[in-house]
């Protein structure tokens, strides 16, 4: 086995066993070279592999820091409300509604929701705090033709439960786009990003049973807290 793999495995074991705590700083490259009696190139190979596999974050001029490897599974396929998803994880969650407004759509929103000049949209901005950390920023836009009323209480609980239970609409399918983007000032304001300056953005276009596009969502996630999973069959 290559020496850099042996060093990688030892550090991984220390992280997974809790000997190296989340956010703790690894020894410097020089210190690791002395500890393992290897070259700088060997240490850098180990550190690069640790970063590629999500165990550490290297920060230029500051060092390497241990990441939280206990990530939440976020299903790519299927349509589930955040409340349904988080209840299946058994986690404590607090939803903070930062904005709830009924407005004329911007040109950008008109294009995404295929709206006319006469249409209005609900804009809802919510921050999801899981186990005390703000890790998701949700920005939802609903066509008011399909969702004529919304309340703060509904937004704190489950909009999908309200739409299907109270309005009697059938949510059918969604198209999703997943990208990794530079964190914006808004992300930094609402999320506990720490040293991370990237977010995973999930854009969803959700349709009713009659193929009507009624919702556009931009859900912005901390990169260190989620892994995006799917099930595929040939």
Automatic annotation (TrEMBL):
PROSITE patterns: HTH_GNTR. Residues 1-69 form the HTH gntR-type domain. InterPro entries: Bact_HTH_transcr_reg (IPR050679), Chorismate_lyase_/UTRA_dom_sf (IPR028978), TreR (IPR012770), Tscrpt_reg_HTH_GntR (IPR000524), UTRA (IPR011663), WH-like_DNA-bd_sf (IPR036388), WH_DNA-bd_sf (IPR036390). SUPFAM superfamilies: Chorismate lyase-like, Winged helix' DNA-binding domain. It comes from the Bacteria. It holds the Pfam family UTRA. GO terms for molecular function: DNA binding; DNA-binding transcription factor activity. Keywords: DNA-binding, Repressor, Transcription, Transcription regulation. One of its GO terms (biological process) is negative regulation of DNA-templated transcription. Gene3D superfamilies: Chorismate lyase-like, Winged helix-like DNA-binding domain superfamily/Winged helix DNA-binding domain. PANTHER family: HTH-TYPE TRANSCRIPTIONAL REGULATOR TRER, MANNOSYL-D-GLYCERATE TRANSPORT/METABOLISM SYSTEM REPRESSOR MNGR-RELATED. This is Trehalose operon repressor. It comes from Clostridium sartagoforme.
